[in-house]
Amino acid sequence: MKWFLLFVITLGLGLAQPNSTYNHFRLPTALRPQKYDLRVLTRLENPEELRFSGTVKIVIEALQNTKNITLHSRDLAFNESQITLRQISGEKKTDNCVTSTVVNPTHDFYILNTCEELLAGHVYELRLIFSAELNRQPEGYYRSSYVDPAENETRWISITQFEPASARLAFPCFDEPGYKAPFVIALGYHKNFTGLSNMPVKETKPHEYLADYVWTEFQESLPMSTYLVAYSVNDFSHKVSTLTNGSVFRTWARPNAIDQCDYAAEFGPKVLQYYEQLFGIEFPLSKIDQIAVPDFNAGAMENWGLVTYRETALLYSDAFSSLEDKQHLSNVVAHELAHQWFGNLVTMKWWTDLWLNEGFATYVASLGVESIHPEWRSKQLESLSNLLTIFRKDSLESSHPISRPIEMVSQVFESFDVISYEKGSSVLRMMHLFLGDEAFRSGLKSYLERFAYKNAEQDDLWESLTQAAHKTGALAKNFDIKTIMDSWTLQTGYPVITVTRDYTDRIAKLSQERYLLNTDISRVHRRECWWVPLSYTTQAEKDFNNTAPKAWMECSQTGESLPKTIQDLPDTDQWVIFNNQLSSPYKVNYDAQNWKLLIETLNSEEFQTIHVVNRAQLIDDVLYFAWTGEQDYEIALRVIDYLQRERHLLPWKSALEHLTLLGRIVRPTPNFQSFKRFIKKLITPIYEDLNGINDTYKPIQAQDEILLRTTVATWACNYQVSDCVPQALAYFRSWRSETNPDEKNPVPIDVRSTVYCAAIKHGSDEDWEFLYERYLKSNVASEKLTIIDGLACSREVWLLQRSLEMIFDPKEVIRKHDSAWAFKAVAYNEVGFLLAKKYFMENVNSIYQFYYPLSKTMSRLLPPLYDQVSTRGEYNEFKEFVANSQESLKGMDQAIQQTLEIMLTNVQWRERNYHKFTRAINQLL
Ligand code: BES
Ligand code: ZN
């Protein structure tokens, strides 16, 4: 083939013109990759020219006859004169060739028209040569940097982030999760660096002509999807841990942060071995690396054998990280390692079932962390947090089912949301609890074994679980998992169960409907039905530990809810509570008498006889019902008034999440005074009981009490409870008077965020500069975030504006990956909100460019805006802004819809509840 096409960028420049008749976003199914051989040379010496070049040989099997090879590729330049294609199966190997190439930029296709038709049943080898700049945005094969403090010089490294659809930026490939193949990877780089990839090194040898360069070839991988491929060239240090089976587990970080790797190097191997035993399946690779990447868009990524993290999710410092930081990082590590089975070994067929990856990793991580650190009691907290999150997000009309059809690539990105993660995890927990441990685990084991190195969809999971459940007797033969679970994964939303008791007949009648936050939407005639496991207990029994369903709410063949009656309930002087330990994601409303009984118990010495998770449930439910008008605020506030006695984190968490939202709405109104007094009344007893933010007396033993104290401290200082602010200022002053404040910080770690915030809020410009200086000097990523939060507590407009401008400054004093965090910090400040909203609306186009093409990242700026817009005027203004900014909000459709809906529900609250709410508060003062 004598083609004179040279270096053609697949953006549609040069001869490769977009002109395809095939215009579907999925790859055609005529071909399947059997193996990739990928060689990538990375050049990191010249910061002006950070580039890579590569060769990929793909062995391709033809399943149908075809005259073209359609691959994914984006922003790669090809050396088209050197494309080769030959048939490698059959009697004699024959050369084929490529007549022309076509680029389809809409779907990132690179289409090679072949000289001869490729024939079904035959195998071909295609070789392509390509190159590109190391990406400046954190996706594909990209650059990251850190400053070496010894030399005060910037050091560059390279790293990949391919999920969900960015392998195509690094090499041409069949970039869909269903196309699994083994990879042989070789990295070329300067010998002063280290090359890492999914697999252990096979051999390293000198580069054929580049002086001081080497090629490192890695062992052939197991069959895997393209999004799990990873490699990095870096000059990092590492810590080695060894697993009991002899595999090597290494933890990598920039040299100056290597002493922050100890905890992850100990926790990672422990949790990996726990999973081996939990699933009964060994980790199949002989090495695994985890690496802390200075610039990282997500939290972490589960690449098989080379797991990548942002620094806050892997690095831990005894002196600078809080318990919350430690728990966060444990959870992230446990999550990514759970993916080594759920996601890497068994992968979803298509992004529709992303929840099979993310829901599982989320749920299994909570089991992993619980087993390694039972003293944290984090499983309970985690499952409650997940439920609280989905009760909010999934009550929106604009939510979507767990398993959702994908119609374009932007929806793949959007699917990494609370529905796949938190709701996915919650329905898995529900199954675990209604099936019991034996059936659940044996079902999972057979699912993992059956689909190992292959792809699966949710029906495959249902089938394995049904078989296991029938075998162990966990589920009656006339029930199957698919019928039950499809109602949770294919329908949007969750139900509210209304329990109406008849105290004379000692029965309760139950009905269900979808719970919707938006009260403009009618809830009747929606014909939605969920299979709801009904566990319950009574005031006499108090058997909250039994989470097995005593009955089910069922659906008819045509999908209608069947009414349900529960018999043998107590009479009029005893409450009942449904959904023991919130084992399933539904809300429960009761008749007035039952609520009355519950309120009596909560407000008595007996309140602890209600399980702590159910106390959190009652609070969350009743506050929602008050919001949407099914309950009076008098009742709701009487429920939470009992918190004055409560000393457990979970009910507080549940209540404070609501009070945060309500507080943000009433903050700019004349009645905020009453709200403040109410908060003081609730918080004062517990603040004093926990000895405030003073850590010199009564060391706290229980770990979850530390989290409670952190939370209570934040509220206490925000609402000027007791001595919180003066104490905080004293701590800050003593920090300021240290000779070396970067090394010695007298502020107790777990209240640092509270102390910094109070000090900046009530402090001087010099205090701000002092803290900013600490930000610049800090070597610990999580400490930097705490400081960003603190700096944003200023009430000086100019300082807040300075922060806003710094966030989007290309110089990146604040790294781009922390920009949304920093924006949120400013925008949740009552003074900062108006500035931030204005900044966002006036600069939406440049913000779009700042993140482009990662529009999903830009949508992280929205929560502080939607949480604080609550008047019709502001809502209309934002709606108009959206209509006029379509170009700059591209790829954020789902986030924008949710934003508008949440704003609208705030407006509804303000119009309907504002006065009722204040009246109810005043009654309790
Ligand atoms: N697979 C994801 C990483 C990811 C997220 C890739 C979004 C592409 C888009 C990873 O397993 C993950 O879920 N990471 C979480 C952290 C986790 C502990 C919830 C993340 O990045 O937030
Ligand atoms: Zn994940």
UniProtKB/TrEMBL annotation:
UniProt lists the family membership as follows: Belongs to the peptidase M1 family.
Localisation: Cell membrane
Q: Where does the record place the Peptidase M1 membrane alanine aminopeptidase domain? A: 263-488
The coenzyme or cofactor needed here is: Zn(2+)
List each copy of the Aminopeptidase N-like N-terminal domain by range.
33-228
Q: How is the cofactor bound?
A: Binds 1 zinc ion per subunit.
Q: Where is the signal peptide?
A: 1-16
Q: Per UniProt, what is one Pfam family of this protein?
A: Peptidase_M1
Topology relative to the membrane: Lipid-anchor; GPI-anchor
Supply the EC number(s). 3.4.11.-
| Transferase found in the keyword field | no
Q: What is this protein called?
A: Aminopeptidase
Entry keyword set: Aminopeptidase, Glycoprotein, GPI-anchor, Hydrolase, Lipoprotein, Membrane, Metal-binding, Metalloprotease, Protease, Signal, Zinc
Q: Which organism is it from?
A: Drosophila rhopaloa (Fruit fly)
SUPFAM superfamilies, A to Z: Leukotriene A4 hydrolase N-terminal domain (SSF63737), Metalloproteases ('zincins'), catalytic domain (SSF55486)
* Lipoprotein among keywords: yes
The record ties this protein, via PANTHER family, to: AMINOPEPTIDASE-RELATED (PTHR11533:SF253), PROTEASE M1 ZINC METALLOPROTEASE (PTHR11533)
UniProt domain ERAP1-like C-terminal: residue ranges: 575-902
Task: Supply the InterPro entries for this chain.
Answer: Aminopeptidase_N-like_N, Aminopeptidase_N-like_N_sf, ERAP1-like_C_dom, M1_APN-typ, Peptidase_M1, Peptidase_M1_aminopeptidases, Peptidase_M1_dom, Peptidase_M4/M1_CTD_sf
